[in-house]
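does this look right to u?? magnesium ion version
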Amino acid sequence: MNRERIILHVDMDAFYAAIEVRENPELAGKPLVIGHRGRRGVVSTCSYEARKFGVRSAMPSVTAERLCPQAIWLPGRMQLYADVSRAIRSIFDGFTPDVEPLSIDEAFLDLGGIVPDLEAGRQTARVLKQCIRDEQLLTASVGVAANKFLAKIASDLEKPDGLVVIAPGDVPQMLWPLPIERLWGVGPKTAARLHKRGFHTVGDMANLPESLLRATLGAGEAEQLRALAHGEDTRPVETQREAKSLSEERTYTNDLTDPEAIDRALLQRAEGVCQELRRQKLLARTVHLKVRSGDFTTWTRAATLPSPTDLAEVVVNTARELLSQRIDLAGRGVRLLGVGVSGFVAAGAGQASLFTDEAHERARRVAMAADSIRERLGPDAVVRARLLRPAQEQSADDAPPEASSLPSVD
Ligand code: TTP
Ligand code: MG
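got this back:
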């Protein structure tokens, strides 16, 4: 799978006003303002029909009344809006665990590892918009791009009910004509300084000689804005999930020296971690291995998988490679062995595309069947043939754990 990032920015259209229209369809098609009239009032938001008259969020109500005297005014129902916001957030959660809510009606969704490319991101955005329409009778505008900045720009380009993809090659045509104020970090002061030098569009900024930009803004800011102007932004989607990783480790009373026994131990830890992944309906992108030798030398190594998984076969193969290629035991025995996973994506959303390989799909079905037998008959009801060891080995391997041996979440 392509490692390109696929980020969605979702922003509900005329959020409070659209909810009021949904609650009272007679308001549809009319200029509607949410806010308190009068000298001290300000506009919270308004329907797109009111925007045609120039009414905007945060505008003094008296101005709005002057611009659009025929508008219908409603004071707003915050509890209702918060409930709808929560319902929409749970729709987002069905698409990816990597959701960063920005405001009551806005969020970033990271689809990396879930869909292969921006075009698939567009299809997913279309499905997401339809879910919001079906479940909440509301429209959203969605931007799809390889980073947060471009996704946010994109969601705004065809509001309301928009769906815009900005591919890297689209930057000159779609980003450069926009005013420089659209770059994050360009406030009124910076904008004024840039305007004075004759720079008005993002394109002006992108094509400015570096030295001139530095002279106007200072090195740090210049660097940052220049990257944005070229459509580059590496900021991650900051998910508010607690669990960022899952791991299982065990300390052995007698150091493991037999390569066969070490390998079995690896498979056991991988199996435990993957059972937990499947229980939580997650797939993981990164495999971690922790090894401590008899003399207390400790190694931690990690590798990223080509596509996310919840299968022990896949995790153990990576762990084996990490052990053989990136750790030199130099003949020492293994005192502690841990396998972990991180970089979660939701199983289910878009997952079908990950499992085109028939053998992989079959392994997954077997694992799920084993999980359901375990659930009914207990944890030892299904044991891999590979893990049925000669009796003499069991005492070493099954020694009581020193630290937590069950999957731990950190
Ligand atoms: P926005 O997403 O900025 O506005 P919107 O959803 O009404 O319209 P659109 O996105 O289509 O341009 O804000 C979301 C809600 O937050 C908005 O419906 C009302 C509230 N809000 C205020 O109360 N005051 C404000 O100044 C702003 C900007 C928003
Ligand atoms: Mg909005």
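The two ends are 27 Å apart (CA to CA). idk if thats expected tbh
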